[in-house]
Amino acid sequence: MNTRLKELDLGLNSLVIFRGILKEKVISALSELLAAEEDDSLVQIRLYSKFVYELYKKSENLSKYLLELVLQDENSYIIRHAEGKVVDELIEECAMRELEVLESISRLTSSEVAATIDYNGFLPEWRTEEIDFKAEYRKRIIGIGNFGYGLYAKYSMFIIKDSKVVPVKYPDETRLSDLIGYQRERQEVIDNTLALLSGKPAQNVLLCGDAGTGKSSTVKAVVNEFANQGLRLIEITKEQLRDIPLIIDSISRNPLKFILFIDDLSFSSDDDCFGALKATLEGSVSARADNIVIYATSNRRHLVRESFSDREGDDIHRNDTIQQLISLSARFGLTVTFSKPGKKEYIEIVKGILNQYNIEMDEQKLAVEAEAFALAGSGRSARTAKQYVMKVLASSSTI
After folding, report:
1. Residue 316 has what DSSP assignment?
2. Which domain holds residue 359?
3. What is the pLDDT, as a whole number, of residue 43?
């Protein structure tokens, strides 16, 4: 066996801190290739092709791909740094030595491996380059509050599945520049988010108001805007509210900042989930951390659907019942109301969206058609404005 390939294979399999990357298909295939016996060309070719097949699915550049794996790896070393703990010199030395090994592997060229195979046919190549792994990793540690580690380094939006945080691989990519109107309302959300990112006290936020006014889009756009500053979003359904304490425990010591996002929130007066959220907002034992806020959207200002019987007093203490029903929204430190736009504001939103698509229309025709479209549908809103513009686009594309 080629001495260099054998050394690289031994180094790869001796990893301790970065051992998690051995589970990746590319690295697993590389290990098989490095360990292949040189007297069996057919096996070598199969393993070579398998490795390149897996690599090409991720990248054509082995060096960049391996560095990405290393920077995103969730391991005991990076977690200690992220939590501000003292790292023992033994662990520090181990991490640095392993980074040297990984850097050496990252520079393995296709020609080096192909030279060990007794075959004159075509073998696909991959790219490599010189990257200082230790320097890049030190940068990541210094900027851990912006980059994070593990899945949180790779993705910015997450959901809860089977009580576990799972990444959204293809999230809504809306940016603040894509949203038209409601500048004052959005600025309140932005300012609160910037306070969170800067380590200042930030409020839990309730975005309430009419449907289609851009409440959910605002939250997602804010996350997209500030993801590179360490902001992440975890979306939680109403049925998952009981999982909030566990979620908070899992991320409270993470250097990143998190928005726990609850979309379209409302309760019935006897809803069991009501108490779970109320306890979190009130600040139960594990309910709040400095790097976490709750953002919720609702079409209801007071979140709880009231019946006339609620007001008329099935409960002996009628006033206490009503106060209980409206108390949840009061526990959000900041309430931002998104109301349906008036005719003038609605037309301005339509114009703004049309400008984004470089569409020009006669203003009088625009005003008449857009208003008629709103009246025939669900009324004036940012969503209706977008739907009208999509109709205009569809019509123009068929001409």
Report:
1. S
2. 343-397
3. 95
